[in-house]
């Protein structure tokens, strides 16, 4: 109750509705190896920066701008870019890229993005830093996946770039629902010379663009790839692509209608019975869970009364209806107070809700059964001929 007052006052009810705002999913998290002395003033290793357009990258090293060019060619969104020291050799670069969780260096620097006022990165190419291993899993990718799991992100990991068999082996070693292997490299014209570049950056850029122009339920597959002049190791669509895709390896194809990215599966496709075999299904689930999680922070600290619980229920239900209307979710979502909620929970300040939804799988295996129907076809042909007459039978 308000303090007594002689007069009229309008007091806004503090127990007001909360409208969860869908989280952004299109920001790319890219890590690049550099010689620290080559960085412009004010930019240092292990501290992320935001690159939103080419002018933001004007003073960056040429190799970094060439990688970013793939993002711009394919109309990708904001890139949260962090640098690591390239070191004296490959081992030192790997150690610098793996970094340290306690000091947030290397791939762990992405955890600092939001505290620095940057958008949360969600789509991570390995962009020349790491390649999925064959004998053992790559250390940088393995460490990045721990960061990505925390950020609810997704990794497009460059494959070994040798053979299809090696790419499939590398995907099996990852076997992670938050990762797709992209194999092989794409070719870009750099100074007029065909140059091999990261396919993972291409996939990340296209996924970022789809998130912004369609929605998170659209996976980076069967989409035109721009800015490339070829691929390092072409694959045959009829005989090789299915085997790669089934293992969680995506590639770039050309069926005569231009270069396209192809393959919507995660490396969890290697797990028998996995329900996380499609990358867009994984990303939609993350999107819904994070949106609810972030939105419901608005209810923290409020008294556990009927009005508050009703507001929470309505907020969850309305979000799911909205996402169904935008075709991010299939119909049939449910949200409400969990049947497992007990009075003892309430005394301890615990509230339990239940959430049910289903992301749409992509059209992956399209089957059309064809039949011949000669009798109907010929009857239609003959019936359509003008000038028909009945020939009298001989007496």
Describe the 3D structure.
The chain is of the alpha/beta class and 395 residues long. The protein has helices spanning 62-73, 90-98, 139-151, 164-174, 199-213, 241-246, 279-296, 306-325, 343-347, 374-384, and strands spanning 28-34, 49-51, 79-85, 123-125, 154-158, 179-182, 186-190, 193-197, 223-224, 230-231, 249-254, 259-262, 334-337, 353-356. It has a six-stranded mixed sheet, sandwiched between helices. Strands 1-3-2 form a three-stranded mixed sheet. Helix 2 (90-98) packs parallel to helix 3 (139-151). The model has no long low-confidence stretch (mean pLDDT 95).
Q: Low-confidence segments, ≥5 residues, pLDDT <50?
A: none
Continuous helix count: 10
* Mean pLDDT reading: 95
The overall strand count is 14
Helices and strands: which structural class?
alpha/beta
Main beta sheet strand tally, sense and closure: 6 strands, mixed
Structure summarized in a few sentences:
This protein has helices at 62-73, 90-98, 139-151, 164-174, 199-213, 241-246, 279-296, 306-325, 343-347, 374-384, and strands at 28-34, 49-51, 79-85, 123-125, 154-158, 179-182, 186-190, 193-197, 223-224, 230-231, 249-254, 259-262, 334-337, 353-356. By secondary structure, it is of the alpha/beta class.
Provide keyphrases for this structure:
six-stranded mixed β-sheet; 395 residues; 15% strand; globular; single chain; 14 strands; three-stranded mixed β-sheet
